[in-house]
Design brief:
The chain is of the alpha/beta class. The chain contains twelve helices and nine strands.
Length: about 260
């Protein structure tokens, strides 16, 4: 099905409706596996990697990003940050001009590509990913885009009792005040405890920025409540009203928070 035909089927009144797409329905059916393993279970993540390597121009970061977006609109719905919310992330990166970015939740590497495009050539991103298969897919896509040397994925989770945090400090140079920007897009229940761990370990400095996706849908209510309570004391936040990825029906919020210090 061509792109125009696909849009006619999945749009009504100018709104992109995800539930009219089979890949969205398949994802909904596989939600328990997705929440447990961070893959839908139908092979779409590996299919994305193969599609990128087969059709996107090697070494062309912009074309790799465009290819992923087209795949997500026209072939399989994916849970990366997407193009609309990605522009909010882009703006936060450009404003912060980070030297070290921490990402929580790599998935297939899309958001890291956007960060790589917006950050300086001397900056680097370290992404923490729970699923080793996702990490391998991201590495392949990053290498194809020509940015693999600036992006690192660490398989693990900050909620593992300190093992992954210790690796970040021992192997990736994480230290007091070293992290300029954090992008949070993983288990919604882990948003707040992982941010608290980051603060407790002293990785942030006044002026560091935290960008959190999916604050409204599927929602991170404890994280949102914490940021509201800390407004003006430890954090200063802006809630950007937007839509969940690759559609215009479901509303979402991307929260961009400047760290003031504790």
């Amino acid at each position: 099905m061509g792109g125009l035909q696909l849009r006619r089927v999945t749009e009504i009144g100018g709104k992109r409706l995800p539930f009219l797409r089979w890949s969205f329905l398949r994802m909904a059916v596989g939600m328990p596996k997705l929440m447990r393993d961070w893959q839908v279970g139908d092979g779409r993540e590996e299919a994305l990697a193969q599609h990128v390597l087969a059709t996107a121009r090697q070494g062309d970061l912009d074309d790799v990003i465009r290819t992923i977006d087209r795949f997500c609109y026209e072939q399989s719905f994916m849970i990366n940050v997407g193009d609309e919310k990605g522009e909010i992330l882009d703006a936060a990166v450009r404003r912060t001009d980070p030297k070290l970015v921490l990402e929580l939740g790599t998935y297939c590497g899309y958001s890291a590509l956007r960060v790589a495009r917006a950050m300086g050539t001397d900056a680097r991103l370290v992404s923490v990913e729970f699923n080793s298969a996702n990490a391998a897919i991201a590495r392949r896509i990053w290498d194809h885009a020509g940015v693999g040397e600036r992006l690192t994925v660490v398989v693990g989770t900050l909620g593992d009792g300190g093992a992954t945090a210790g690796r970040l400090e021992a192997e990736q140079g994480f230290a007091k005040g070293s992290v300029d920007l954090v992008f949070i897009d993983h288990d919604k229940n882990a948003y707040l405890p992982d941010l608290e761990l980051i603060v407790e370990r002293g990785w942030l400095h006044p002026g560091s920025v935290a960008v959190a996706d999916n604050v409204k849908f599927p929602g991170a209510p404890k994280y949102r409540a914490y940021m509201r309570q800390a407004e003006g004391s430890e954090w200063r936040s802006v809630e950007h009203s937007t839509h969940a990825e690759y559609q215009t029906l479901l509303k979402d919020i991307v929260m961009v928070s400047d760290y003031l210090g504790s």
